[in-house]
Amino acid sequence: MIEIRHLHYIIATAELGSFSQAAESLRMKQSTLSQSVRYLEQRLGTNLFDRSTRGARLTRAGTHFISGARKLVADLDSLHRNTIIFGQGHSGALKLGLSGAVPSSAVQALILKFSQSHTDIQLSAAIHERRILARDLDQGRLDAIIVAGHLSPAGMAYHALGSGRLFAVMLRDSPLGARMPIYWPDLRDLALLLPDGESGNDLLSQISGRLTPAQSHPTADRLAIVRRPLGLNGLYQLIDAQSFAIVQESELGQLPSRLVAIPVHEPYGRARIDFGLCWREASDNPALAHLLQIVMAQASPTYHCDAW
């Protein structure tokens, strides 16, 4: 008999590419996990993984199997979650994923409006990197995600929510501190300060191509990036004559008097990061439909990603 735990073992091994890492993530012995996977392969009459010293890779049969396994696990998780929610008197649930580079003020406004309009729906949200959010959305672990930049996986729809202007924060008395306007090439000789974690990763993914020349010589100096486990206020304390930070307008906050925030420009205007809502078009969650009604009231267009 195939049990749900077997599916979790297969999914973890496929995602991590290693039996030892999968066992560690599941907090179990590697030998127990390996034996369970072997048992399942024997029941199915085929290998799900190619094993080597480099790890475990899905076979063709394994790739087909895991697609159905992920859907089944997601459906069971949804059934379990919804049963608890309905038992508590709620009429539905909505799981959102948030990208770290999305302005918190925009997200809070949407969540607040939804929560006030639908008090009977349980809303939860988690912050992760774009790639993790896209994976969890595709696998049904999330109902919708709000991300910086556009996403275009097949079967998804994207609705633009807005954009945030980008500012370079630097020393007020630095050579660039009094320059207007500032363009991306002006910043390439300085070190970029970024926070660790999802917000820093997502911001870097949106601006790295703008800071790095499209046609750069292989031996050209790469952009210096300094990562620190700090929030914006902490990064502000580290800015010196050789460094700067990129901050969205809504996140600037109160700057120390020694610093100045200068809007970054591009050839066609001020630099911005777009952000929007992405969801699976095949979703049948009524709670998501309620969220989309609020989102669609905004003027921005909806893009059906499988047509891109």
Helix content: 25-40%
Low-confidence stretches: 215-220, 303-308
CATH architecture of the largest domain: 3-Layer(aba) Sandwich
CATH superfamily of the largest domain: Periplasmic binding protein-like II
Brief descriptors of the model:
D-Maltodextrin-Binding Protein, domain 2, two-stranded antiparallel sheet, Arc Repressor Mutant, subunit A, disordered C terminus, 12-stranded mixed beta sheet, 308 residues
Q: Could you please describe the fold and organization of this structure?
A:
By secondary structure, the chain is an alpha/beta fold. Helices cover 39% and strands 27% of the residues. It contains nine helices and 14 strands. It has helices at 4-16, 19-26, 30-44, 60-87, 104-117, 130-138, 198-211, 232-238, 286-296, and strands at 49-52, 55-58, 92-99, 121-128, 144-148, 156-171, 182-183, 191-195, 225-228, 243-248, 259-266, 269-270, 272-280, 302-304. Strands 3, 4, 5, 6, 7, 8, 9, 10, 11, 12, 13 and 14 form a twelve-stranded mixed beta sheet that branches. The chain has a two-stranded antiparallel ribbon with strand order 1-2. Helix 1 (4-16) packs across helix 2, helix 1 (4-16) crosses helix 4 and helix 2 (19-26) packs across helix 3 (30-44). The radius of gyration is 23 Å and the shape is globular. The model is unreliable at 215-220 and 303-308 (pLDDT under 50).
